[in-house]
What we know:
This protein is α/β, with parallel strands linked by helices. 36% of the residues lie in helices and 15% in strands. It has helices at residues 26-30, 65-68, 88-93, 106-124, 140-151, 165-168, 174-177, 203-208, 226-235, 254-259, 272-290, 318-329, 332-345, 349-358, 378-386, and strands spanning 9-10, 13-14, 17-20, 36-39, 54-57, 75-78, 97-99, 132-136, 155-159, 182-185, 214-217, 240-243, 262-263, 309-311, 370-373, 390-393. Strand 5 (54-57), helix 2 and strand 6 form a beta-alpha-beta unit. The radius of gyration is 22 Å and the shape is globular. Bound molecules: ligand 1 and 4-phospho-D-erythronate (DEZ). Residues 43-290 form the D-isomer specific 2-hydroxyacid dehydrogenase catalytic domain.
Amino acid sequence: xxxxxxxxQLDNTLVRIAADENIxxxxxxxxxxxxxxxxxxxxxxxxxxxxxxxxxxRSVTAVDETLLKGTPVxxxxxxxxxxxxxxxxxxxxxxxxxxxAPGCNAQAVVDYVLSSLSVLIDVRGVSFADLSVGIVxxxxxxxxxxxxxxxxxxxxxxxxPFKDPAVVGPLTSLEEVLKADVVSxxxxxxxxxxxxxxxxxxxxxxLQMKQNACLINSSRGAVVxxxxxxxHLRSHNDFEAILDVWExxxxxxxxxxxxxxxxxxxxxxxxxxxxxxxTEMIYQAVCEYFGLPMRRKLGQFLPEPGIRRVNxxxxxxxxxxxxxxxxxxxxxxxxxxKMRSAMSRAEDVKQTFDQLRxxxxxxxxxxxxxxxxxxxxxxxxxxxxxxxxxxxxx
Length: 394
Ligand SMILES: NC(=O)c1ccc[n+]([C@@H]2O[C@H](COP(=O)([O-])OP(=O)(O)OC[C@H]3O[C@@H](n4cnc5c(N)ncnc54)[C@H](O)[C@@H]3O)[C@@H](O)[C@H]2O)c1
Ligand SMILES: O=C(O)[C@H](O)[C@H](O)COP(=O)(O)O
């Protein structure tokens, strides 16, 4: 095992960092604090942390007593929204500091849902305003999605047992939400307590949905009972599923993948902006926790977007412009096609799943994309702005 050379000393405490190899910009943000070891997060062991003070992970590392007991780790940061891979009770008991990156990639997930909805409306020959969308969980992702869709003229219903309608807008029961044309899941994965979400969607809930409804899951795989979803899809030809997360990932149920309208390898949150924001957020948390100066900012490192601007003429119908802009920003069918093609050749499904994620060409968030609209097309300007685009009049 390579030992990392501690070069930073604070109150006689050496700060040594071990980080998942898939966290971007770790060197840019953290190098002044010490040498950084990059490790494979999926196979991380306690032995590898024998000389680590700060551990930086992503969602693929189970951080618990087995991993940390007997190590000098004093702080764990996860550059992700989700925290279901972290045993927070253990960290508290062991007096280990912790930070996640709430909301870091919420915009990317919203872009994923918008792109998926744009495919669905193409397939069904309808427009956004013809759909009703039910949102389950109105936190960082769900609320951003709700606001975008409502501004775009979509009929939205939402449920969340822990939120105040005065803050997040009207809320209703899960039963009511299940009556929508599309149901999109945005809860954390919670195994116990008052409102567990493991298998929140199973055979019973799926039967409450419309025969031709569409279920989108970009939260955590196990929020949906995947075996019961597959059985439902097999007995309901018009029912559609769009899945980014899978119950046993990186293992993938190929039969379920084949029956999905869109299937992607847990990349809904994989934008450059979202991933880099995640690193910045755990950097800020580390600085605060150890009383270190905060010298780095995300703006120093974010490059210009590849597509700088998409221009529309005054001839283009509103819905077509909206669909074109969303798909120019993010085309979910490309990711779906890559996963199907890779899986058709895969010798090891788990390895292929991880490889698709590791080699993912990070996209940019919709708000980084400028759209040019004629000054007189006020409706189009409003519609594109409501979807999050940076509208410029020409
Ligand atoms: N696919 C991806 O790449 C990706 C990216 C980012 C986040 N995620 C996942 O998306 C989910 C949502 O992320 P977020 O940032 O919005 O989380 P968040 O914590 O901000 O919001 C989750 C919301 O769900 C609500 N909730 C909890 N239990 C519920 C229940 N039983 N019914 C309805 N609502 C319930 C909470 O009150 C909260 O408002 C998380 O599971 C996260 O891990 C996935
Ligand atoms: O929780 C999150 O932020 C997302 O699910 C995130 O995109 C997970 O990415 P990973 O850590 O698995 O690379």
